[in-house]
Amino acid sequence: MMKRATMASFSPKPTKCYNVRSISMPTRSHPTTLRIEEELNKLKSWEVTSTSSSSSNYSKADSLGKGLGGLKDLYTCIEELLHLPLTQKALALHQNEKWVEELLDGSVKYLDVCGNTRDAILTMKESVRVLESALRRRMVGDSSLEDSVNAYVCFRKKMKKEVVKVLAALKQMDQKHEVFPLDLDNHLAAVVRVLRESSLITSSIFQSLLLFLSTPILKPRASRWSLVSILMQKGVLACESSQSKSMNEMESVDIAISNLFADNASEDVEAQKIESAQRKLELLDESIEGLENGLEGLFRLLIHTRVSLLNVLSH
Predict the structure, then answer these.
(1) Are 171 and 204 a contacting pair, CB within 8 Å?
(2) What is the mean pLDDT of residues 246-257?
(3) Rounded to whole angstroms, what are the CA distances from 296 to 113, 117, 124, 198, 212?
(4) Smallest Cα–Cα separation from 284: which of 235, 212, 216?
(5) How far is CA 199 from the centre of its chain?
(6) Which GO annotations describe the biological process of this protein (predicted)?
(7) Environment class of residue 253 by beta-carbon count within 10 Å: exposed (0-12), middle (13-18) or buried (19+)?
(8) Which long-range contacts (CB under 8 A, 24 or more apart) does 218-223 make?
(9) How far apart (Å, rounded) are the C-alpha atoms in residues 139 and 47?
(10) Coil, strand, or helix at residue 9?
(11) How far apart are CA 123 and CA 129, in angstroms?
């Protein structure tokens, strides 16, 4: 699970340390820095879209998957940039500068966040599949669903606590960027600029993903979900389908599971509720697996970036 993060003040939304804009690079920038600029601008456009699409028929997990895919494209370009002789020579000449230490520190911390988040998602996938199995047994008369639901809720609560710590650490990283010297040559200045912009967008996407994974959930109370009464007061249970467009995959599962514990009459209605919960869990399972694959690919690229930086600075 997630670790090595420092507690700090927590805000429920990612802190944006930059304005959404196009980067204006020097006219004589290397083509590789220009490609990184293009990837950064794509990610910033994605960020605007992802935060303004909650009211449409839109999958939050799919959107996050696209963000992770964009990061992979970005770090592929960064790897090319770090292998340029021009870049290697420039960084080697400044390897004792504080802003170089900042780049190295960021590379290992994002690697930790990516790996720990990937491990957390893997554990979540196992928890979801246990719940899916319990629902299948419920269909044939097994009444042990409550234990599986309680285990799922406990896992979600534990994940939320861990996510708070990681989010706080990411926000601290965003605030530590030093102003780099103005006397750097054009190429090195461009390299430092795009690497810092890349760091900020990486942090932003990780924060969005972590907030998705820590979607709030209310615990069961006395074999009944306290969430049920709240949702009934708001009329949510009566109009689940009309609300589903504005919910992410995890919220949809919460509502479907809550419905299972609401008072109801016929066996037909009970069967429909179980089928609905199964469909929602299957969608969440697919979404989680997609995010896991995205993080696995990104993790490998972050390793390459870290190794490339170390190799440049060790000569």
Answers:
(1) no
(2) 86
(3) 12, 10, 15, 19, 18
(4) 212
(5) 15
(6) root development; shoot system development
(7) buried
(8) 219/153, 219/157, 220/146, 220/149, 220/150, 220/153, 220/261, 223/146, 223/261
(9) 41
(10) coil
(11) 10
